[in-house]
Amino acid sequence: MAFLSDTLARVKPSPTIAVTNKARELKAAGKDVIGLGAGEPDFDTPENIKAAARRAIDEGKTKYTAVDGIPELKEAICRKFKRENGLSYTPAQISVGTGGKQILYNALMATLNPGDEVIIPAPYWVSYPDMVLLAGGTPVTVTCGIESNFKLTAEKLEAAITPKTKWFIFNSPSNPTGAGYTAGELKALTDVLLKHPQVWIMSDDMYEHLVFDDFRFVTPAEVEPALYDRTLTCNGVSKAYAMTGWRIGYAGGPAHLIKAMGTIQSQSTSNPCSIAQYAAVEALNGPQDFLAENRKVFQRRRDLVVSMLNQAKGVKCPRPEGAFYVYPDISGLIGKTSAGGAALATDEDFATALLEETGVAVVFGAAFGVSPNFRVSYATSDAALEEACRRIQAFCAGLR
Q1: What is the pLDDT of residues 362-389, one digit of tens each?
Q2: pTM of the predicted protein model
Q3: CATH number, domain at 111?
Q4: Of 259, 285, 311, which closes a domain?
Q5: Does 295 lie in the same domain as 281?
Q6: Which letter, b or e, does each residue of 17-28 get, where b requires 16 or more Cβ atoms within 10 Å of its Cβ?
Q7: Contact criterion met (CB below 8 Å) for 342 and 350
Q8: Using CA atoms, how far apart are residues 79 and 87, in angstroms rounded to an integer?
């Protein structure tokens, strides 16, 4: 239809949201569905954070705020970066947006020109390539398979960089794989980036607090301070603080970039919700002890899911370092036919048949740029995970 913009042809709707919506529809129609598609913790927002939001309402903090964040929140973010990442930022170097997604989008919109390339390791979060396309840039995906634990190597990064490269998007622990980079692995990448002064680093640290065993989280500007002036360190309260619906994301970076991002935001959404901002101040400044308790729950669920999926015929499931996803390989199942008669030529066929025949909703791997795989979010109850994994085992056992 000629009325619609050509931009729409460059992007597709989010497959993870589509799967969650489909599961919701089937559930509403009375089907027994277990949704493992949504990337959000099943915990409630901590009480002290909710109390701070109620207090903000009672105190009338319901007006417009500064476009890219209230001073109290910017100061809390500065303290967080110093305390947890050893990074020093001033409030002028902080941007607050309506969720982490807006922060990334603003930065790309403020910096990309036609022909600019953005390196994105695959598997990637579904929105990265589409946001680059929306901003007029060219996504350059670099496939990182199961043989490297879905992690980018220095050699692959070096090979992908061209004179047109403007950004490198880095995400650890990763959505969709849960793979986390050690300080040594990240240092190998930052050593490459030091040689290419035209490349900026966008570090998506949203899963920083969801790391397991003795894994220690690090972020690029912390590992290589010489990259501080061309790194945008992005984060938010969604995952760690169980605040997905509050929609608060933030970033620290060079003041001129932050100012440009504020200009973009001033002409789109303007300020993030004032109440959510005051809640986020409490999240960052308040007690942090529940983070360790939540981590224990997620680690237990990870171990359960990895163990049960590895017992499913033809499924190979690596054990990730963080986040709340696993990304099993199903190359052993492609070409087979399900008990219900569905031919499994792709991982999308697998996910569709699994949902229709067993009521388990997962996201197919092609959505994240690496196939044949599927993503499971284990941010749901142990009982639901056990039952879902049992159904997946039975589905795989019935393939012929």
Answers
A1: 999 999 999 999 999 999 999 999 999 9
A2: 0.96
A3: 3.40.640.10
A4: 285
A5: no
A6: eebbbbbeebee
A7: no
A8: 9
